[in-house]
Design goal:
Number of domains: 1
Radius of gyration: 15 Å
CATH class: Alpha Beta
Strand order of the largest sheet: 2-1-3-4-12-11-10
CATH architecture: 3-Layer(aba) Sandwich
Order of helices and strands: EHEEHHEHEEEEEEEEH
Largest sheet: 7 strands, mixed
Number of strands: 12
Distance between the termini: 13 Å
């Protein structure tokens, strides 16, 4: 049976676990490096990116996550998780993993009060619009040549991308009833 780890240091990890359980997936909370062993995929949830970064470094998770990603472990980062995956993050030298060839701007749409919801066309998951929730969301300012853009807003702002076994989303799929992005991630996991 497929086993997905969800980084459970801070943020919306319980919501990801709940969606995965509705899909019949075995899940485990990841807080320590040894808890990464034996998983088939990893989700890095939204939350407070500075706090998650500090905790990842403190618990020595960043290096092991990076090594496993380079070995092919599928990883989905949502909101703050996107920041954890990025090679470049505006205004900081503290990278968590730096494994995805993207440059990210934190809080790209403003503060908490500027949060919004929007229907997106995401061809990779079907024709039906996807209702996305953006909370203090980042955006991708630059994507490398091997990065596939999954979603752009009408002003060409990149809010979702895939590079090999890595998916980065600026929004929170765990806060909706639509599980298509989790299924898309599980398809990547199962193809591995």
């Amino acid at each position: 049976m497929t086993k997905i780890g969800v980084l459970a240091l801070q943020g919306a990890f319980a919501e990801h676990i709940a969606i995965l359980k509705t899909l019949g997936v075995d899940t485990t909370e990841v807080r320590l490096p040894e808890e990464l062993d034996g998983i088939d995929g990893l989700i890095i949830p939204g939350g407070e990116s500075t706090t998650i970064t500090k905790l990842m470094l403190s618990y020595e998770l960043a290096d092991k996550i990076k090594k496993q990603a380079l070995d092919g472990l599928p990883i989905m980062g949502t909101c703050a998780g996107m920041i954890m995956l990025a090679q470049k993050v505006d205004g900081t030298n503290h990278l968590s993993t730096g494994i995805m060839d993207i440059a990210v701007k934190r809080n790209a749409f403003g503060r908490q009060v500027d949060s919004f919801e929007l229907d997106l066309d995401i061809p990779a998951i079907g024709d039906e619009p996807y209702h996305a929730i953006f909370i203090r969301a980042p955006k991708i300012e630059h994507a490398g040549p091997n990065v596939d853009i999954l979603v752009k807003l009408s002003d060409d702002t990149i809010v979702a991308a895939k590079e090999g076994n890595l998916i980065a989303l600026a929004f929170h799929p765990e806060l909706t009833a639509d599980n298509r992005l989790h299924k898309y991630f599980l398809d990547i996991v199962n193809k591995r």
